[in-house]
Amino acid sequence: MRKLKFFEKVMFLANSVVAFILLLSYIVPLLSPKTFAAISVLGLGVPILILLNVLFFVYWLVKIKKQLLLSLFVLTIGYFIFGSLYKFSESKTVVDKNNISVMNYNVRLFNLYKWIPNEDVEENIVSFIKQEAPDVLALQEYHPRESTKLSFYKYKYEKLLGKNKKYGQAIFSNYPIVNSGSIEFPNTFNNAIYIDIVKSKDTIRIYNIHLQSLRIDPKLETLTTKESEKLFNGIGNTFKVQELQAELFLKHKSNSKYKSIICGDFNNTAFSYVYKQVKEEFKDTFKEAGNGFGRTYNFKFFPMRIDFIFTDPSFKINAFKTYDVEYSDHYPIMTKVSL
């Protein structure tokens, strides 16, 4: 520190703070939000903390200063715990006659309330789905008026909630559905649904989960200090609710005898407690076959991956893709898997 100039000392101090916060965030997946609500909020900021530490590392590398070791050390620990934030490898694509393609998409009510100033959003979503033609389609924030336009699917199960039962979750399938149901979450319009499909001689369970929404306004630059504190506390409370919902889901899943695929909008990142709890020993299809940041939510400040598809370890992950289509505040994701 003695050999550093004043500006460099300030930079290293900032570097130290950011590195410590990132290091602290690594324990978030291990801590129950019910007990550590404030710390659990850190999980949302892990992507930006990683990016900041990468920038500090590059800064000290250019300066040829040993201070680069601080961020390098913290980033290395994070890599072994979570893997890389950005996947540099190309998307994996394996052609297999036994492939099942599964798409997950939060369609935000097909733009029912005109959040996007475009009259063709509904038609664009349906055309996109028809073009990509997933064998199984899991939709969150589904609105039933579109059900007839998705009639190219042979089978479907939907669970509508909310006032007058106008919206909810749905799963469409080209494989026969032999069983279906809903896992109700208390005091909310969010829930989880499931179907059992038959492919050849195999019965496979498909889950579609929508955990409690964060309700973050993307225009965060307009927040006052008081509003920021309210937002922080609100996110902590939301994570507590998500933990309860995850527990209800896991209790249900533990009674299933079938190999499962879990789709959903978790409203939380891969650095969260609920992600770790729901994923358990399952495979994250993005980590197995995706590339890039894999962002699934249109949040302009940093890439957020809050939508996931997990598979039972028995599945081979043969492909994964995140689609950069802006018909919702979420981006659709699709994987191809085989037993």
From TrEMBL:
<keyword id="KW-0378">Hydrolase</keyword>
<dbReference type="GO" id="GO:0004519">
    <property type="term" value="F:endonuclease activity"/>
</dbReference>
<dbReference type="InterPro" id="IPR051916">
    <property type="entry name" value="GPI-anchor_lipid_remodeler"/>
</dbReference>
<feature type="transmembrane region" description="Helical">
    <location>
        <begin position="37"/>
        <end position="61"/>
    </location>
</feature>
<dbReference type="InterPro" id="IPR005135">
    <property type="entry name" value="Endo/exonuclease/phosphatase"/>
</dbReference>
<keyword id="KW-0540">Nuclease</keyword>
<dbReference type="GO" id="GO:0016020">
    <property type="term" value="C:membrane"/>
</dbReference>
<keyword id="KW-0812">Transmembrane</keyword>
<feature type="transmembrane region" description="Helical">
    <location>
        <begin position="68"/>
        <end position="86"/>
    </location>
</feature>
<keyword id="KW-0255">Endonuclease</keyword>
<keyword id="KW-1133">Transmembrane helix</keyword>
<protein>
    <submittedName>
        <fullName>Endonuclease</fullName>
    </submittedName>
</protein>
<feature type="transmembrane region" description="Helical">
    <location>
        <begin position="12"/>
        <end position="31"/>
    </location>
</feature>
<keyword id="KW-0472">Membrane</keyword>
<dbReference type="Pfam" id="PF03372">
    <property type="entry name" value="Exo_endo_phos"/>
</dbReference>
<dbReference type="GO" id="GO:0006506">
    <property type="term" value="P:GPI anchor biosynthetic process"/>
</dbReference>
<dbReference type="InterPro" id="IPR036691">
    <property type="entry name" value="Endo/exonu/phosph_ase_sf"/>
</dbReference>
<feature type="domain" description="Endonuclease/exonuclease/phosphatase">
    <location>
        <begin position="104"/>
        <end position="330"/>
    </location>
</feature>
